[in-house]
Amino acid sequence: MPPQQPTPASFLNVDLELNGVEPLQLLQEHFGERVLVLHCGETESEFHLSVEPLVHGRFSPNLEECLNHFANLVEGLPPHLASLWARCRRRVFDVGFDGGYEESPLSVDINPREGLNKSTGHAASSLRVARSKHDGTDQFFGR
Fold first, then answer.
1. pTM of the model
2. Are 88 and 23 in contact (CB under 8 A)?
3. Quick check: helix, strand or coil at residue 140?
4. Which of 7, 84, 129, 131 might form a disulfide with 100, Cβ 3.0–4.6 angstroms?
5. Residues 80, 9: contact at Cβ < 8 Å?
């Protein structure tokens, strides 16, 4: 078998992970077909909503487009849902990358959009970047 060709790390997707003490189904319903719902419901100790963006009805291979899509969704929340968003205990934009076969470090510059920072209340929000290596291990870079 020939040796594996080196491949660089590449963007996979962004998940929005929300956790709170009250049901988050109203947010799921408002997002509608603009997201793919991975999970919405109660866990052992809280409520959880996990979604991926559907930009123009499809998955996007572009990190900035995905983050802007989420920013537009959050900025467009009506007041009662913006309040539910603000009451979430945890709001994480989880950015995933395929680590490829190269050993060089992965560096990604994410230009924070002012509206995203305002709408998420940056003190209570976080951004997580995960790089998955082909050997099955993950490396997390949190903020």
1. 0.74
2. no
3. strand
4. 7
5. no
Q: Could you give the number of structural domains in the chain?
A: 1
Is 2 within a domain?
Answer: no
Alpha helices in 49-133 (DSSP H): 63-75, 79-87, 114-120
Kindly state the tokens that stand for 108: 């990604």
Residue 28 parent element (H or E):
helix 25-31
Q: Does 116 fall in a domain?
A: yes
Q: pLDDT tens for residues 79-114? A: 999 999 999 999 988 888 887 666 555 555 555 554
| Inter-residue contact 89 to 46 (CB < 8 Å) | yes
In a domain, 102, yes or no: yes
CA distances for 5 relative to 9, 45, 102, 124, 135, angstroms: 13, 45, 9, 41, 15
